[in-house]
Amino acid sequence: MDEKGIIERLETLANPTNAEGMKHFGIQGKNILGISVPILRKLSKEICTNHLLALKLWDAGIHESRILATMVDDPLETTERQLDMWAKELDSWDICDHFCGNLVDKTPYAYEKAIQWSYQGLEFTKRAGFSLMAVLAVHDKKAKDEKFYPFLDRIRDEAEDSRNFVKKAVNWALRQIGKRNQCLRIKAIQTAEKILKSPSKTSHWIASDALRELKNETKIELMNSKLL
């Protein structure tokens, strides 16, 4: 199936009602067809991994074709330049998170890009940095705790960014890092408590929401350990 055939397939699957409804979930951008993620995943399995095709699907500029591109691209064939270009072109939180969780976290550049993008000014590029921190915390089971310490520093330093899609990703990253293990949970709680000292409303929300989840899980673990 070539690029033209896939685009035609996507157009036949278009659902204007879904496209309109997606706006209520903050999904934005151009050329949204309203195709659900399960349908895109099924289509990606038919296509299989194809780096050159992924580049063409991204360049097509359709919301769903870009999500599909993140699903079919080959992480070992992607270049650092490509990832930076795609990160700058992100225009919706869902494409951003698929980009991070389907593709970037499997590349050799993942940890480097998480830090680099967290410094960027563009809202969705910066979100990508923190979304990548969150998905790496979930997906990279073999990573040592030390890999996540720089992430906690960046979370602390950027907790005052009040832009909606940035602050939610900062909060997400903090919670996911803290849920990896007890050691990182303590580190994440300490980070949240430092953030909580800021007078910023955004910082207070990020920290208090994370603490509510991380401290509750700590209590549950302590209770379970006493029962054993």
Question: Which descriptors apply to this entry?
Answer:
Serine Threonine Protein Phosphatase 5, Tetratricopeptide repeat; 228 residues; single chain; disordered C terminus; globular; mainly alpha; 69% helix
Report the β-strand fraction as a percent range: under 5%
Fraction in helix: 55-70%
CATH class of the domain at 110-228: Mainly Alpha
* Tally of strands: 0
Structure classification: mainly alpha
Order of helices and strands: HHHHHHHHHHHHH
Tally of contiguous helical segments: 13
In the predicted model, the low-confidence regions spanning at least 5 consecutive residues are 223-228
Instruction: State the CATH architecture of the domain at 110-228.
Output: Alpha Horseshoe
Overall pLDDT: 93
Radius of gyration: 19 Å
User: Could you describe the largest sheet, including whether it forms a barrel?
Assistant: none
Shape: globular
CATH topology of the domain at 110-228: Serine Threonine Protein Phosphatase 5, Tetratricopeptide repeat
Structure description:
The chain has 228 residues and is mostly helical. It has a domain at 110-228: Serine Threonine Protein Phosphatase 5, Tetratricopeptide repeat, CATH 1.25.40. The chain has helices at 3-12, 16-22, 37-47, 51-59, 63-72, 80-89, 93-103, 110-117, 123-139, 149-157, 164-178, 182-195, 201-227. Helix 4 (51-59) packs antiparallel against helix 5 and helix 5 (63-72) runs parallel beside helix 7 (93-103). The model is unreliable at 223-228 (pLDDT under 50).
